[in-house]
Fold these 2 entries.
Entry 1:
Amino acid sequence: MIALGEWMELLACPACGGALQAVEEGLGCAPCGRRYPLSDGLVACLPPAELRRFDELAQGYREARLRDGWQPMTAEEAWALPEGRPAGYPALYWEVRRQSCRALWRALAQRAALVGACVADLGAGTGWLSHRLSQLGGRVVAVESSRDQDFGLGAAARHYLPRAAFLPVLGDLERPPLAEGRFDLIVYNASLHYAGDLEATLRRGAAALKAGGWLVVMDTPIAREPLPGTGRGDRHLGRRELAAALAGAGLRASWLRVTRGPRWWLRQAKVLIKGSEPFSFPLVVAERDGSR
Ligand SMILES: C[S@@+](CC[C@H](N)C(=O)[O-])C[C@H]1O[C@@H](n2cnc3c(N)ncnc32)[C@H](O)[C@@H]1O
């Protein structure tokens, strides 16, 4: 059972923004009276209808991953991420994730240490980055809409939580259940391209930042223009589209190029030969614009 007390100051009702408190069945919002019961032992900040909708999406995501050959990870594989090469994944997949993660570590090294910093990992999947950020001393809330046992927060609970210390929360990255002005770092790791309303999503993320806090977008595919994705709610964001949404959300962004290896450039060459639209995974680090 998760000790919720120390986390409550970081959470807020996704519907009204009010303070949440631990109640017998899970969490309750004092101002609006909504109740958020635990779900499969996980803190769930989603109304029941949303939970059902996300369960359907998670089922589709699971089936597609299994069709692609991705296999549920062992605890050892999960603990090693982003290092290693878990069974069933294409060679390039974790290579790219590793490069992006190292670029994030380099960017974060320019700031104060993560020890004690409040961090939110939005669209956290299995929670591998939450785990790494908490190892560096962050107080990490992992928000994810899927409770899947292998590809969602169920895996976080199974693999990491017996020994690691972050808070997994079932929630919507578009309306994250985060208290305003509390976070030093908010990361959308391979997840922002699932947001329907980009600017509103970023505005809500930005509202949870402390002054001087960072909002990071990583491993989201960025193309010259917006492009359709896999048909499971994701897409490729357009560069100007994302730049405009960040600015509209009151964020000042730096776009950092991530160094990729030969395997990536071979892939890019094949994309160009096929006449497809290339995309990249830059690291975008944004701060709240103090003038707004
Ligand atoms: C490509 S995966 C990335 C997962 C993880 N961040 C990682 O890097 O491995 C995208 C994740 O976003 C989650 N997701 C999609 N839409 C979401 C939403 N509206 N709210 C929360 N999570 C969402 C999916 O369930 C999935 O786990």
Entry 2:
Amino acid sequence: MTNDIHSAPKFFGRRKGRTIRKAKSFLLDNFLPRVLLNAEKKTNLADLFTEPKEKYCLEIGFGDGEHLAALSLQHSEIGYIGVEVFKNGVANLLSLMTGIKEGEQIDNAENITLLPERSDNVRIFDDDVRLLFEALPSEAFDKVYLLFPDPWPKSKHAGRRFVNPENLQHLARIIKKGGILQIATDHPIYKRWVLYTLHTNTDFVWTAQTSDDWRNPPADWHETKYQRKAVREGRRPVFFEFKRI
Ligand SMILES: C[S@@+](CC[C@H](N)C(=O)[O-])C[C@H]1O[C@@H](n2cnc3c(N)ncnc32)[C@H](O)[C@@H]1O
């Protein structure tokens, strides 16, 4: 797969929602380029960060970025790559990283900095992660998070589900042996789909020993927007952890 526009995979979903207000759109124009990943060339993860990192994690489809913002604040020793194609979500993560909120007056790009308590350990790719896969090195990530991916529950849309053999092949290449693929979902059809698809995959093994292991979030968990929505609407999220073998 290449970034050539003619061979780019078709994306199913929203890229932009409600109007992005002035402060967030200023962040997209002026702060995003400082933390943006380039998918055009092979990426050496260590070169992306100003300080050496102990390990690297990837979050695919970070939505509003709350989980990524909280984890990266907690773990300055880890380098995070966040990928989200939805512009409003990217703008929200930038707002969480800089503390600049909607409605705030900001007109000088030089005044935008990371919040003082944050280290510079997040890089962002603001497009379809499938366009990034080739640029990522093999066995690079200790953990990949895929939290509440769009379930596409109708069987005629099953081909749009992110968890599929082709994407798993890319993930198997970039996750270290012994590394983790963490998938959370609240949708009954997607729960079964994930277990079936991973069961028939020879690169990953489900780590759960008891039902508590998938019913409860892992220790360092931070709630996401979709998780809250699911719980509010009476759906029970599950937290599957698959180890790269
Ligand atoms: C249902 S939302 C969940 C968002 C967030 N993880 C949460 O739990 O609140 C799924 C997100 O994945 C993003 N997404 C879907 N396919 C993607 C892809 N191929 N590359 C990057 N982001 C993707 C969508 O834009 C959307 O924001």
